[in-house]
Amino acid sequence: MPAVWRAWTTRARNSSGSGRTRSTGWHQHQSWSGWPAGSPAHLDLPAFDAFGRADRRIEVAEGISDDDRVFLRKRRRELADRLASLDFDSARGPVHGDAHTDNLMVDQQGGLHLIDLENFSLDRPEWDLVVSAHEYDRLGWVSGEEYREFVSCYGRDLRDWPGFGVLAAIQEFKTTTWLMQNTAEGPHIAEEVRVRLASLRDDDAPRNWQPY
């Protein structure tokens, strides 16, 4: 089934000429042309796994205190309950599942290609949209001009949806637990994890996070 991609991004080729996209945030919108309702008969696509490998990462991450593990387990249960109560207002469709710029490649003709499809699923488009909205609204990794262009292209600002806060909180939880597995890479990672865990304990606290 053909897919039509409308994408915009701050693009620059790296010094090796590989065409890897470099940007401070995710600036992609995808729309699919001709995709029927539901999943094509020859594809058996799962629903999006909102928490991914977070449970295992909580248990095996090194350098995490017992208190932090208890907090994260509780936070996971709370977010799952909040997610279960959401009313999505979009039809199910193809979801990339990890929609950030490191998963965009630029070919020699300037065409954009998505990579890393291990989380590709059939679910609500809000799961992809929340990445850009959260990086702009909470993290400041996307400029106002960039986000306005993104919203103009897509035709919807997810922040206007009542469920945005829940999906943004899940995004923060999942990216924090992902980073926890990398603490052995150096003290800068351990410090970033500490900062993020402190933020997760206060929904209203500023997210002075570094992108990884």
UniProtKB/TrEMBL annotation:
Residues annotated as domain Aminoglycoside phosphotransferase: 39-151
Composition bias type Low complexity, residue spans: 9-25
Q: Superkingdom of this entry's organism? A: Bacteria
Q: Which SUPFAM superfamilies match?
A: Protein kinase-like (PK-like)
Cite the residue spans of the region called Disordered. Answer: 1-33
User: Which InterPro entries does UniProt cross-reference here?
Assistant: Aminoglycoside_PTrfase (IPR002575), Kinase-like_dom_sf (IPR011009)
One short Pfam name that applies is APH
Name this protein carries in UniProt: Phosphotransferase
Species, as recorded:
Actinacidiphila polyblastidii
